[in-house]
Specification:
The complex is a heterodimer of chains A (276) and B (158). Helices cover 32% and strands 23% of the residues of chain A. Chain A is an alpha+beta fold and 276 residues long. In chain A, the strands form 2 sheets. An 8-stranded antiparallel β-sheet of chain A has the order 1-2-3-4-7-8-9-10. A two-stranded antiparallel sheet of chain A has the order 5-6. In chain A, a hairpin with a 5-residue loop joins strand 9 and strand 10. In chain A, helix 1 runs antiparallel to helix 5 and helix 5 runs antiparallel to helix 6. With 158 residues, chain B is mostly beta strands. Helix content of chain B is 8%, strand content 22%. Chain B is built from 1 helix and 6 strands, in the order E-E-E-E-E-E-H. Chain B is elongated and about 55 Å long. The chains are: A alpha+beta (276), B mainly beta (158). Chains A and B meet through strand 1, strand 2, helix 1, strand 5 and strand 6 of A and strand 4, strand 5, strand 6 and helix 1 of B. Chain B: InterPro entries: FMN-bd. Chain B: Pfam families: FMN_bind. Chain B: This is FMN-binding protein.
Chain lengths: 276, 158
């Protein structure tokens, strides 16, 4: 079945206990597009079966428990742990993929504190890996919303709102506090914050929950990089934001809620001008 | 880290807020692609991540400790709203965790960051009726959801 050029197709995938939305414009063949999205979804589900810490029998859980070695783990585990280490080094230690006691206490499996926990980067890594399947659809333009981290491709611009940092739950239908057009070549936007899961990001320097900023959004051309920087800035606070400035990162950090409404924020020089 | 200021276009404000799933033409296909191990008892099917109105759903049953079944955690209410989780257990292993309800909006006081970095520009952000295709925000999980997950685990005898 074919669809007219102006049709927009939408799919919602529930995996990793999160909703992933795929939208396509200008799809030449709807059936081909559906198969592409199914392959994309299967890829995410496969990643979940490799990396979930919610059950003790995944390869990542085995490594975190110490019952399996990194060397013997599947290639994907080694790749993601190496990626996490790369970002730890790149962000001066702010991106720290180790399991903290309070995070471990929320999991149904008991892991030793300090066990490797790349959860913070697995989602965007998995999306980046699975995107190749979406290309099969040959859409004129597409967008993937991975529960708050967004990337786009093809022609045109997708407008992505910055969610209210005090909002909990799915922000769809809410009033955003800003908006950025994603297209050429800035195609990715990731946000990390404290409202959705209180104290889930730790300051690696103090070992305490990170409360430097309410929320940090990063725009760029690489979804994983945006995600890693956003998480790192939330964790490391001003010192990591200063490092992000030096690296030319386009970041917006929401620093405080105003008593009269609205929010205080700071942006790096690379942040796109909102008054354009 | 390689973002380009010039390439990013910003949408105008004052458009009618009509976002996400609501903007999709009604006859479009919506796949509900659960992970392979899913028992099929979940309530996937809507485009919404959560549905607070669904909290009374009794789930697919399953006796405590039997090792298989669908278990709904208690509705956990805190200042940020109602949270409820559902887990699907097969052979004593959790194969699916989903949110039946995940909170509502609420204000929260925050610590003001006083450290200044000269290169930064100050902004004041106001919630507006931007017409957006998607939202970038923190991933949709919460302590309330996780607390409800724990309740579901207890009900499952895990």
């Amino acid at each position: 079945m074919s669809s007219s050029v102006d049709d927009e197709l939408v799919w919602t995938i529930h995996v990793m206990a999160m909703p992933f939305t795929v939208r396509m414009r200008g799809v030449p063949d709807r059936d081909v597009a559906e198969r592409a999205v199914r392959a994309f979804a299967d890829d995410l589900a496969d990643a979940d079966l490799l990396f979930s810490l919610w059950r003790p029998d995944t390869p990542m859980a085995q490594v975190a428990l110490g019952t399996g070695s990194v060397e013997d783990a599947p290639r994907e585990i080694r790749e993601v742990l190496a990626l996490a280490e790369e970002w730890r080094a790149h962000t001066g230690g702010a991106f720290d993929a180790r399991l903290r006691r309070r995070a471990a206490a929320r999991l149904p499996v008991e892991y030793p504190e300090g066990a490797p926990d790349p959860t913070g980067i697995v989602k965007t890594w998995a999306v980046a890996r699975a995107l190749a399947h979406l290309e099969e659809a040959a859409a004129r333009s597409w967008m993937v919303d991975a529960a708050g981290d967004v990337c786009v491709g093809g022609e045109g611009v997708w407008t992505v709102g910055i969610a209210d940092p005090t909002l909990v739950g799915d922000p769809h239908g809410s009033r955003p506090v800003g908006a950025v057009g994603l297209g050429h070549p800035a195609r990715a936007m990731a946000t990390s914050g404290v409202a959705q899961a209180r104290d889930h990001v730790w300051d690696p320097e103090t070992g305490e929950p990170a409360r430097h900023y309410l929320q940090v959004t990063v725009v760029g051309d690489d979804l994983i990089a945006c995600d890693a920087w956003a998480t790192a800035i939330v964790a490391g606070g001003p010192r990591t934001l200063a490092s992000a400035v030096e690296h030319g990162v386009a970041a917006l950090a929401i620093t405080a809620e105003r008593s009269g409404g609205g929010f205080e924020a700071v942006v790096t020089p690379a942040w796109p001008d909102e008054d354009a | 880290m390689r973002a380009s200021r010039t390439a990013v276009v910003v949408a105008g404000s004052a458009a009618i807020l009509g976002v996400g799933y609501a903007t999709a033409p009604k006859d479009l296909p919506t796949l509900d692609l659960a992970e392979p191990g899913d028992s099929g008892s979940g309530d996937a099917g809507s485009g919404e991540a959560t549905d607070p109105g669904d909290t009374a759903d009794a789930g697919g049953g399953g006796s405590a400790g039997s090792g298989s079944g669908t278990f709904d955690g208690p509705v956990v209410t805190n200042i940020r709203g109602d949270f409820q989780a559902r887990i699907v257990v097969e052979g004593g292993t959790v194969v699916s965790v989903e949110a039946l309800a995940a909170g509502t909006s609420a204000a929260e006081s925050q610590i003001i960051n006083s450290e200044a970095i000269p290169a930064l520009t100050q902004r004041v952000l106001e919630a507006q009726d931007w017409d957006v295709d998607a939202y970038s925000g923190a991933s949709y999980t919460s302590p309330g959801f996780l607390e409800s997950v724990q309740g579901a685990f207890e009900e499952a005898g895990l």
